[in-house]
Amino acid sequence: MTDEHNEQQAMHYCAYLVAFFDILGQKDKMSRIALPPLEDDADKNEKFKQEIFQVFKNVVTFRKLIVDSIKAFIQSGIEDNAIPEQAREFIRKLREHPIKCHSFADSTIIHVRLKDDEMQYAGRAIYGVLCAAAVTFNAYLAEGIPIRGGIDIGFAMNIGSDEIYGPALASAYHLESKVADYPRVVVGNTLVSYLKELSNSRPETDEEKGNQLLARRCLSLLMSDDDDNVIVDHTGEYIRGILQKSPGISDAVSKAYNFACSEYEKYRNARNEAESVGNAEAVKRCALLADRYELLMKYFKKHLPSWGIK
């Protein structure tokens, strides 16, 4: 009874920011490594080993990259020169806010506790998650690995050292699996409303001024997509201003766009082939995937001119 009481005391039902990311296309890659080659062919066996390595590397590298990117943006101090001197100590405290990562299969969950005894708003952590989502999305897409995600805030309970469960997690998962549809990162209405409320507030203390500035930076990372869903603007003006001086970043954006174009062409051609042989199921699947990459291409075309990419 005492153990159960202590366990309940250690569990808290409170507000969290939750980001749910999924690496797309892993199912098809898994099907290719379901069985090793039966014949003793050195070339085929080596190719099989490389395919196994790449499938698992995609997942492991993503987990590390997203967490490292979040920490980098939290610690970067990119926005410090725009923050009043009196508020900088508060911002430094925000940087210490813990970020937890929990993964299973090809999905990764990031969560940040928003309320505790010391602070009411982990603004720097939210900023870090949104920036990292943009950077990681572009980096992986440039390598031909599409990502889909959902980010929102809500309530949940910690059920392990790095794991939570509750409505906040359910919302992020719903956004990724049911709303995002094509490779993009969708942001929930609750998080958007929360940031807008802070952005439009009338701050009186240094802490409130820091919160407001960070909320406005977070909103600069978002845009309304053609279907009115709010998404992380991963090649938009704000992230471009941060990254454009980085070596190779324009090439990465160009590669990401070219990958979207090649996937669109691949699935459009596959749809036509399926139609020619009367495979209705394949026609439906390929048409859906072609439509999704066409939407991604449309997003990129809006932003490419500002990157100097034709």
Secondary structure layout plus pairing:
Elements: H1 2-10, E1 13-23, H2 26-32, H3 42-76, H4 88-95, E2 100-104, E3 107-113, H5 123-142, E4 147-160, E5 163-165, H6 167-179, E6 185-187, H7 189-199, H8 206-220, E7 222-224, E8 230-232, H9 237-243, H10 249-277, H11 280-303
Parallel strand pairs: 4-6
Antiparallel strand pairs: 1-3, 1-4, 2-3, 4-5, 6-8, 7-8
Question: Overview of this structure, please?
Answer:
The chain contains eleven helices and eight strands. The chain has 310 residues and is of the alpha+beta class. It has two domains: 11-243, 2-Layer Sandwich (Alpha-Beta Plaits), CATH 3.30.70.1230; 250-307. Strands 1, 2, 3, 4, 5, 6, 7 and 8 form an eight-stranded mixed sheet that branches. Helix 2 packs antiparallel against helix 3 (42-76), helix 3 (42-76) runs antiparallel to helix 5 and helix 10 (249-277) runs antiparallel to helix 11. The longest helix has 35 residues, at 42-76.
Please report the distance between the alpha carbons of the first and last residues.
67 Å
Order of helices and strands: HEHHHEEHEEHEHHEEHHH
Q: Helix content range of the residues, please?
A: 55-70%
Low-confidence stretches: 4-9
Structural class: alpha+beta
Q: Find the count of extended strands (DSSP E, 2+ residues).
A: 8
Mean pLDDT metric: 82
User: With helices defined by DSSP (H or I, 4 residues minimum), what is the helix count?
Assistant: 11
CATH topology of the largest domain: Alpha-Beta Plaits
In CATH, the homologous superfamily of the largest domain goes by the name Nucleotide cyclase, GGDEF domain
The CATH class of the largest domain: Alpha Beta
Which word captures the global form?
Answer: globular
SS strand fraction: 15-25%
Largest sheet: 8 strands, mixed
Query: What is the correct CATH architecture of the largest domain?
Result: 2-Layer Sandwich
Report the radius of gyration as a whole number of Å: 21 Å
Q: How many separate domains make up the residues?
A: 2
